[in-house]
Amino acid sequence: MKACMGKILRVDLEKRSFEEEIIPEETWLGYLGGVGLAASLLYDAIPAGADPLGPDNVLCFSSGLLTGTGAVMAGRWMVACKSPLTGGWGDANCGGNLSPAIKQCGWDAILFRGIASEPLVFIADAKGPGLEAAGELWGMDAIATEEAILSRHAGGKLPAVAAIGPAAERLSLISGISNDLGRYAARSGVGAVMGSKRLKALVLKGNRPIPCADPAAVKALSKAYSDKVRRQNLPGLMKGRFLPVLGKIMGGKQVLPLDGIMSAGIMKRWGTIYNNLAGAVNGDSPMRNWGGSVAEFGARHYGKLDPDRIVKRETRKYHCYSCVIGCGGVVDVSDIMPGISHSHKPEYETACTFGALCMNDDLETIYRCNEICNRSGLDTISAGGTMAFAIECFENGILTKADTGGLELRWGDGKAMVALLELMAARKGLGDLLADGVKKAAERIGRGSERYAMHAGGQEPGMHDARLDPMMGVSFSADPTPGRHTISASVYYNVSHVWEGVPWAPKSTKIYPKGEEYEATEREADKSVAGTCLKQVLDAAGGCLFAVATGTQHWRIFDYLDAATGVKRSREDYMDAARRIQTLRQLFNVKQGLSPRDSIMPQRMAGEPPLETGPLAGIRVPIKAMVSNYWRRFGWDPETGVPLPETLAAYGLPPRPAFQAAKLEVE
């Protein structure tokens, strides 16, 4: 089969040895690549009960099946392992420039196990793989590390680099891995795993061609899509101040069918930060640690986070490899932080977690927090969620100035937020207690603090409120990597057109009452399952979520896969492969002793008790019933979330490990 290199590299850091392995074609047919390839490898490679920060955990970097074939919007890479944050399946997704570099070195995935006796850098080039002492790189921040490595390779083809910062070296469970000077595979604590192995960086400088079965067909698909994106331009008079109107339309009582290609214009203009204003007015943006509303953080506050103010700082637009949208941006913040003229602009998740979630309306604080995280390696979502938890604990007397080292943690106090984040990055004082996320922090603090710890299965959720989009809540609660906002949601599903060629996926082509999304019906469950499966295909292919958000009738992922691999398959075949991937990820968690029901998000996030003000006032989400239906439609036990024996047999998966769990009580 084309599109894949057909091999992986296993690296034993303790023995400093390398072993190439040929992957049989049936693996590609069954798991596709990317996250699917990682799942197929790690389920067997990581033993039950393995210490996530120990030698038996395996850190897998994998490229997507479409990467390097000429497909646009297909430059994403995955890193997967046993998560130290959740104790189960962990993965993180990133753009940048690393994905094609993995394949250009001759492999589809690189797997690291063991613990090095000293800090090391992995290097692969035309001569093959090698390991070198990290030397003075250990202790450097992630951006400085990459800059130092790139300077050593000046004058020729620059390598792609993935590196960790000091937070990962200090084993913060909410740390990630940086690529391309600040793009992040941030979630699941993958940075801590890399730090535990004393692996400072990957340096990839291969030059092998990436095979494609039908380059002409792939080129035609890419041209057709690129032309559509090029035509999507917003009028010059369209300013950020109009985004609250868009937000109100998106949060209305009637759901309108929209052509997702229109989002390309928005993403080209602002990127994800368009939601700084749109999400504030319709309730998508969680506020005051998921306990507040726009009634407390009104226009005079959220208006200060206008994306136009951020875009004004852009020195250039940023495109990941093979991207034709360019939602990112490089900003100059040297007037705020002297010497920092190259900084990736804060994404929406970052702006919200250090903004509305903490009731902060100061952009300077957000820039500072963004840069601290990018250099230290902290995940902005988890770091901001942990900060909001700490502020609420302080406001309620659970934490005192004696605990904080004199800091007064108050809602919206930017100076205190920056000071606390610096402590978290350095693991000093209270920051040491908070550096592993809200679940661990609540366990350490006690005294009732767990009621303010907003997490799903140990991971802080993305900045999208399930009281606006209940399907998002199902993803937070039921995905094997809980708390993720990039899996499935109604807002994604309704523009995906995945139902075209997938008969069991419910159509979303007509106006319908918003209230239907709050019902625990089979239709809503099937939408969640179909959206989840589409995301697994996407992550296996190395595709971008924003490409799917423009609609699969425009970015034709299934046609791309047929053309690139040379294997013609139905959409249902691809969705079956996605079911296999998702079920194996869930089985990994069961093997590691987790109870899926323990990942269901807190009742506060589901509207219990309901908010009293704002657009989501009075709304409750029957999350347990919705999760139970989701499990059932996947072929998993609706009470425990454990895959059923007949489902495992149907997908050729190993028998499930012994598992017992109490029944799930549903609303």
Observed structural traits:
667 residues; alpha+beta; Aldehyde Ferredoxin Oxidoreductase,  A, domain 1; Aldehyde Ferredoxin Oxidoreductase Protein, subunit A, domain 2; 6-stranded mixed β-sheet; 27 helices; 17 strands
Q: Which band does the percent of strand residues land in?
A: 5-15%
What is the residue-averaged pLDDT?
96
CATH fold-type name of the domain at 7-204: Aldehyde Ferredoxin Oxidoreductase,  A, domain 1
Parts with pLDDT < 50 across at least 5 consecutive residues: none
What is the strand tally? 17
Q: Give the class from helix and strand content and strand pairing.
A: alpha+beta
Using the alpha-carbon principal axes, give the shape. globular
Helix content: 25-40%
Describe the structure in your own words.
With 667 residues, the protein is of the alpha+beta class. Among the domains are: 198 residues, 4-Layer Sandwich (Aldehyde Ferredoxin Oxidoreductase,  A, domain 1), CATH 3.60.9.10; 183 residues, Aldehyde Ferredoxin Oxidoreductase Protein, subunit A, domain 2 (Orthogonal Bundle), CATH 1.10.569.10. Helix content is 38%, strand content 12%. A six-stranded mixed beta sheet has the order 2-1-6-3-4-5. Strands 8-7-12-9-10-11 form a six-stranded mixed beta sheet. A hairpin with a 4-residue loop joins strand 1 and strand 2. Helix 21 crosses helix 22. It is globular and about 60 Å long. The mean pLDDT is 96.
